[in-house]
Amino acid sequence: MIESFKDVRPSSPAAFPPIQVREPQFYALNSGAVKEERLPFTVRLVRNEDDLRKAVNIRHSAYARHVPEFAEKLRTPEASDYDDGVVVLLAESKLDGSPLGTMRIQCNTFKPLSLEQSVQLPEWLRGRSLAEATRLGITDDRAGRLVKTMLFKVFYQYCLLQEIEWMVIAGRSPIDRQYERLLFKDVYPGMGYIPLRHANNMPHRVMAFHVDSAQARWAEAHHPLLDFMCHIHHPDIDLGETTVPFMPVWQPPVERTGTYA
Questions:
Q1: CA dihedral of residues 59, 110, 179, 134 (deg, nearest 10)
Q2: Which pTM value belongs to this model?
Q3: In 84-213, which ranges are continuous DSSP H helix?
Q4: pLDDT digits (tens, 9 = 90+) for 116-150
């Protein structure tokens, strides 16, 4: 059955403008990579209505598994999908092009984050460049875990590209534990779960992650995702018009001793 989408697009014809690619940051994304790894899917920015339809379909099906009543409101694109400062990520199978995952990222360049409809940010986040991830949805098959981890990597890389200082998320229980393991910290320690208007007033834990210190903190914690996030180049990520070449970090030659024939 083909969904009939309500038109919430802005009157401007440039509904999906390309992101501004800052070349130094763009090439720095893989400055620490020592190997390249291919995936059975791609992750890219939504660029047209067909892409958005795929993202909305996987978003709806994912929410329908856990919060079916709220999922009914997500059958069609939301006005926020077209806002300035917003991009939607889409993970697609290389085999058949089917959608496997999606995430929406909003920067606070043009207006406050969606969660600020419900809470006032603490002093240490005010006046900072922020990006909030919302509407995460992934497939329920075996690829789902890898897709979710890759969407987080793309969120992180997008924030590096856009010179974002803090990543902000709101997670329901038990999803919030996943962000805790990624070293996100509570924005409101001790407050627990807060109802959020943009999440149908469901209680969420609001957490934040400092972007520039991420690699150092993952390394200090011997985090199992350090290599995945920082030392492996994934060419199936597309965040701009330019393809990032794989340029492995130079390694000094191994010093050998002994006599060789």
A1: -10
A2: 0.85
A3: 144-161, 175-181
A4: 999 889 999 999 999 999 999 999 988 899 999 99
